[in-house]
Amino acid sequence: MRIQHNISALNTHRNLAFNNAQASKNLEKLSSGYKINRAGDDAAGLAISEKMRGQIRGLDMASKNSQDGISLIQTAEGALNETHAILQRMRELAVQAGNDTNTTDDRGQIQKEIDQLTSEINRIGNTTEFNTKKLVNGELSDSFVTAEGSAGTTVSKDFAIDQTQVVGSNPTTWSGSNQLETSTNLSITGAATNGLDWSSLDQTADNKVEINKNGSEMEISVTAKDSTGKELTITSKAMAYDADSKTYNFDQDGVKLTLTADQVSKWADGETATIDLEKGAAAGPVDATGNIDIASNTIALGTETGGTGSTIGNVKVNGDSPELLANVSKAVVSFDAGKVTVDLQDSTGNSINKTDYSAAAGDTIAYNENGIDFSLAIGTSVTKIDATTINFDTKSKSTVEGATSDTTEDRSLKFQIGANENQAMAVSLDDMRASALGIVGSGAGFQSEATVTDGTSAKAVESSLDLSTHESAAKAITILDAATSKVSTQRAKLGAVQNRLEHTINNLGASSENLTAAESRIRDTDMAKEMMGFTKNNILMQAAQSMLAQANQQPQGVLQLLG
Prior knowledge:
Layout: H1 7-32, H2 43-97, H3 104-127, E1 129-130, E2 133-134, E3 143-148, E4 153-154, E5 160-162, E6 172-173, E7 179-180, E8 187-188, E9 191-192, E10 196-201, E11 216-217, E12 223-224, E13 240-242, E14 247-252, E15 255-261, E16 280-283, E17 309-312, E18 316-318, E19 325-326, E20 339-345, E21 351-358, E22 364-369, E23 372-377, E24 390-394, E25 399-400, E26 404-409, E27 413-416, E28 424-427, H4 434-437, H5 470-523, H6 527-553, H7 557-562
Parallel strand pairs: 11-19
Antiparallel strand pairs: 1-2, 3-26, 4-25, 5-18, 6-12, 7-10, 8-9, 10-24, 13-14, 14-15, 15-20, 16-17, 20-21, 22-23, 27-28
């Protein structure tokens, strides 16, 4: 027997504490009515039930929203009911005024009532509200905003010019004029020109000019003249130079052209001169021009010859229009006044013809392919061009056709009839004022003077139906029938919406009811079951208390052993 540790008492005490805790939980659930009072009671059940609670409360509020929507619809429909009654009375008066038994004074009295009734329709349209929101004045209908462009509008554009430079020693001029014909019209912001004439082209040092036209290249001529006025012209796009064989190779549409010439002078090691499409740097006093068709691929020119260089940049017209003309580039190449060889080959390398020509300064070598002239002329030198401007005129006025664009702004009512996003219905309420119904206006069938107010002021702003003659009264009957039909259509639509909302409320109620039942099964206390648990735990707790007293008496048996 042991007296330091009473194991039986400790075990009984532990069971007593457990039973006491369980009984406390039973009491909490019974008193609150919920079996989940904290996350520890059922973590997963708590998360699920909270989501369900959100849906339930959302469904209940959506049901209230639907009821408010019905109240709004009924308010608008009540206003249109009065509008209907007014239109019926106006039609009755129009029929009466159409009878020629009435005198002019009689029709005048009828006209006064027509004017007042029309003003009342305006008042109903302007003042009918629900929760300060106007209903039938057109603010809750789909509105259209129209933007119109007038045909024949002239398009004017200002261009900033980046100018080019040519470096040399003798006078150099821009030759000829380059005109864009109808087949290659320049497009400016969607409006096409019938042609483009260049009247002059000058440039500034250290700048470049680039002209773009619908993605096609446009040639600008640069002429270098010697003392006798002879010219060397080359139209090119990309050229390859073989320093060892002293040849320049051109390739256009499968036809190859090879030029062979002696260098003007030798270059020291490491020194080169190049010519390319974008920024040509050439050796010698020869410039490049030509009239290669804009729509075709032009011959390209490049070189690594020796000699003094001259630079030709690109021509560019900068603007905000989206059209592009391919880069215009010119190349300068130098030939000795001695022997020049032209070797023409097809795309397979077969020789078409070969001519040896001993050229002197100022002489010209001409080449023609498909009606396109290509010439090489021996020149002497070129000179830097002073800074000026590029000027051009279009052959005809550039215009852009006007267009009408309709855009719709949705201003209809949105009824939130569901617990979640995108669970709304749209309801539009048309303008039901006199102007929208067509019972005020101008011209035949209406009075010449304004006699109708907006319903809230005394100032007449519109002209009502004219009932002064049989013919005008008969026309008024037709107009009033059309107005009545518009109101009937609107009322029918509102009635359909009201019926729809009533079904919506029933559906929301059923959804909320079933979701509440599911949430209740997760969270609510089963009172009978919980009472059973409490009774059991209460009995166990009392038994544990009794057994604890007995366990505490066991160590006293040691005293008998000592006695």
